[in-house]
């Protein structure tokens, strides 16, 4: 009997060891590493859940503002960005001076609670919760629980604003009806999907007085006369598609940031999940903060400012998209030049003017330039998990410029939509520059 017993003990030990390997003890995350982990976890869930770019920007903004609000509360003389935004009610009274609150824990927990409330795959944030709890496992139980409770209070303040920003109402509004009128947006191949977020202009902005506060110049009028600005820009897209260089192809795909691109192979259809434009800039923000060695407070502000400016940028851009409802290049090129023409990139399902990536890249990059300065070089590794690519940029501005021109290389935007979109984004960002300290 001894041998079977000994064998049983060995197997039990192996099971325990395997179990420990499957459930490693959460790492303790010091300083800003905790915040970067929170943001990376949220990005992973947003990619998995396939949120549209405007909706993704809303999630990033609210979660980042929650982290900032809790962390700034522990800094004498500081203030939360939420207190400088529209629509947020004041927080409940701050903890008493003698009450021990670990504000880092409150901040990470507030972030987690807001993110969990706004995403679909709530269980996917379980590992983040373990990391948060594990990083503060040495706290006395009373201090730990009070810190979590403070995070819950801050999350409730953020979510109260989110519940009143008219997002919920837009979920049940009618779909956009497309009519076959010259120059007006039509559903585009290969999937001919319905227009995305036609009511996004109704979402309450964070800093803008209204969705139209940063209204751009109108697009060039639809005009197929060969001497018109519109025709020249149309011909530019078509001619460029015939001579795309290797570097142009790389730039177009690097900044595609379409969260759900479908591929068709005969009867087989499959999809590639990727970052959204705001997700790309959130990863860039993380890279910049870590490269500069920023502390927790400044990192929290960088995330919250960038995400909030991009959130307002999408509201401003979508207000213009569904005002001018400009037709996409692929529709006109197939009608006028080549019936089987395809753009290098898959055309997203919403009107052309202005270019969303141009708007939000200008808005986000201008905020980041206010924090890190002009000429701040960095290596962007955000696309390694999705494309296996990384790129060096001599400045934050250069990255934003490349993001904008990528839409022309990709055949999905006219030049005016890119140039005016960039200016539109700058106007949005100016509302945030005064909050940078």
* SS elements, strand count: 4
Instruction: Detail the poorly predicted runs.
Output: 1-22
Mean pLDDT: 92
Give the count of helical stretches. Answer: 16
How many structural domains can be distinguished in the coordinates?
2
3D shape: elongated
CATH architecture heading of the largest domain: Orthogonal Bundle
Portion of residues in beta strands equals: under 5%
**Rg to the nearest angstrom?**
24 Å
User: Share of helix among residues?
Assistant: 55-70%
Order of helices and strands: HHHHHHHHHEEHHHHEHEHH
Largest sheet: 2 strands, antiparallel
Q: What's the end-to-end separation, in Å?
A: 74 Å
Q: Which fold name is given in CATH as the topology of the largest domain?
A: Vanadium-containing Chloroperoxidase, domain 2
What structural class do helix, strand and pairing data support?
mainly alpha
- CATH C-level class of the largest domain is Mainly Alpha
- How are the strands ordered across the major sheet? 1-2
């Amino acid at each position: 009997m001894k041998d079977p017993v000994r064998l049983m003990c060995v197997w039990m030990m192996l099971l325990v060891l395997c179990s420990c390997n499957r459930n490693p003890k959460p790492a303790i995350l010091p300083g800003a590493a905790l915040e970067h982990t929170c943001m990376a976890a949220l990005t992973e869930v947003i990619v998995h859940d396939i949120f549209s770019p405007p909706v993704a920007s809303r999630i990033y903004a609210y979660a980042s503002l929650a982290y900032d609000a809790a962390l700034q509360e522990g800094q004498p003389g500081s203030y939360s960005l939420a207190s400088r935004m529209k629509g947020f009610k004041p927080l409940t009274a701050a903890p008493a001076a003698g009450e021990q609150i670990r504000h880092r824990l409150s901040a990470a927990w507030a972030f987690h609670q807001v993110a969990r409330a706004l995403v679909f795959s709530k269980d996917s944030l379980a590992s983040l919760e373990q990391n948060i709890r594990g990083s503060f496992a040495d706290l006395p139980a009373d201090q730990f629980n009070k810190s979590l409770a403070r995070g819950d209070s801050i999350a409730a303040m953020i979510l109260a604003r989110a519940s009143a920003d008219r997002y919920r109402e837009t979920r049940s509004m009618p779909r956009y009806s497309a009519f076959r009128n010259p120059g007006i947006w039509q559903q585009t191949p290969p999937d001919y999907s319905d227009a995305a977020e036609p009511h996004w202009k109704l979402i309450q902005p964070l800093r803008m007085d209204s969705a139209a506060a940063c209204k751009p110049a109108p697009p060039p009028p639809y005009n197929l006369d060969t001497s018109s600005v519109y025709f020249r820009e149309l011909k530019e897209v078509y001619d460029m598609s015939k001579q795309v260089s290797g570097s142009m192809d790389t730039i177009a795909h690097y900044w595609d940031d379409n969260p759900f691109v479908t591929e068709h192979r005969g009867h087989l259809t499959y999809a590639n999940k990727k970052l959204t434009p705001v997700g790309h800039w959130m990863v860039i923000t993380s890279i910049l903060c870590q490269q500069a060695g920023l502390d927790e407070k400044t990192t929290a502000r960088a995330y919250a400012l960038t995400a909030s400016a991009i959130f307002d940028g999408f509201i401003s851009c979508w207000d213009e998209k569904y005002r001018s409802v400009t037709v996409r290049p692929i529709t006109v090129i197939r009608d006028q030049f080549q019936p089987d023409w395809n753009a290098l990139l898959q055309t997203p399902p919403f009107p052309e003017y202005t270019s969303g990536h141009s708007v939000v890249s200008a808005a986000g990059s201008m905020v980041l330039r206010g924090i890190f300065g002009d000429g701040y070089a960095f290596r962007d590794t955000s696309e390694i998990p999705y494309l296996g690519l990384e790129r060096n940029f001599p400045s934050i501005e250069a990255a934003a410029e490349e993001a904008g021109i990528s839409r022309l290389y990709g055949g999905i935007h006219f030049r005016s939509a890119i140039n005016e979109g960039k200016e539109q984004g700058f106007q949005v960002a100016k509302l945030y520059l005064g909050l940078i300290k």
